[in-house]
Amino acid sequence: MKKISEVLNAASINLERQFVKEKNCERCGRKRNVYRVRLLGGPKKGQWMTLEEPCDCTLSRQAAALIQKKRPQYYWSQSTINDSLEEATLENFFPENDTQDRAVKKAAEFIKKVVHHQQPRMILYGSPGVGKSHLAVAMSKVLMNRFNKACLFLEKTALKQKVRSTWSRESKLTESEIMRLISKADLVILDDLGAEGMTSWTRELLFSLLNARLSKSLVVTTNMSISEMDQAYGAKIMDRLLENMSKQDLLLMEADYSHRLKHLMEDDPKGKGIDPLF
Ligand SMILES: Nc1ncnc2c1ncn2[C@@H]1O[C@H](COP(=O)(O)OP(=O)(O)OP(=O)(O)O)[C@@H](O)[C@H]1O
Ligand SMILES: [Mg+2]
Ligand SMILES: [Zn+2]
Q1: Average pLDDT estimate for 181-203
Q2: How far apart are CA 144 and CA 134, in angstroms?
Q3: Theoretical Cys-Cys bridge with 255: which of 26, 130, 149, 195, CB 3.0 to 4.6 Å?
C-alpha cells in the first residue's frame, strides 16, 4: 500500500510546509498561520507558494450565507398553497376594475415596505374568486425570487391540518417549528380567514399566530367584512389582527363574478349571469 505522502507527492502536493509567520484575520482578528509550500509538479514545479490558513470565521460566514440563500425555499416548502394558485404571478393577474387596480398598486407598495423592513400589514377582503389569494401568492413570489425574502403562505384550513399532523409520532415537523417559522418569516400570509369551523382550539391557534406576528409583516385574505370578523373573533383577536393597520390597509376587492366561474359567464349568451337552474 502506498504511503499517504506518496499519494500527495504524486498529486504535486508537498506535505513539508514551512511556517512563515502568524497573521491576524482581517475580519475577526484571530491569529492564523501562513506557510510556504514547494510545488512538486505542473508548470510551476519547484516554485514556492504562500498559503494562508483559512480562518474559522470565513467558514462560518460561508455556511451562514448558504443557509440565508436556502431560507426562502424552506419557508415556501412549508407553505400550504392550493394547486390552482401554483402559477399565480403579478404578470398573470389582470385587474378588471378600480378595486383590483388599487389592490395591485397597494401590493407593489407593500412589497417595497417588506424589502425595507417596514413591517407592513394589510387585509384583502371581498367575495370568492376575485383574486385575493392570487395577489397574495404573486406578492410572495416577487419577494422570494427578487429579494430573497422568506414568505410563509398559510391557508387557514390547511394550516389546521398541518398543525394536527405534527401530533403524530411519525411527524418530523413539530408545532413549535411551525410557530418558529411564523415568527421568523419576512412575510406571513394568512389565507382565507373564515368564521366556519371555529372551535376553542382554532381560536387559540389564530391567537398564537397573530401574537407571533405582532409588529411584523402580515397579509390576511378573507371573505368577511371587518365587522363580520369583529363579531366572529372578538376583541382580543381583532386587536392583534388590526395592530398597526390604518383604513388604507383594509382593501376591498370586488368583481362582477367569481373568476372561478368566468368560463360559465363567457358561455352565457345574454351575459346576465348564471342560470339559477344550471
Ligand atoms: N384578476 C385576475 N386575473 C387573473 N386571474 C385571476 C384574477 N382573479 C382571479 N383569478 C384566478 O381565479 C382563481 C380564483 O382566484 P383567487 O383564488 O385568488 O380568489 P380569492 O379572491 O382568493 O377567492 P376566495 O375568497 O374564494 O379564496 C385563481 O385561479 C386565480 O388565479
Ligand atoms: Mg382565496
Ligand atoms: Zn477570522
Answers
A1: 92
A2: 15
A3: 130
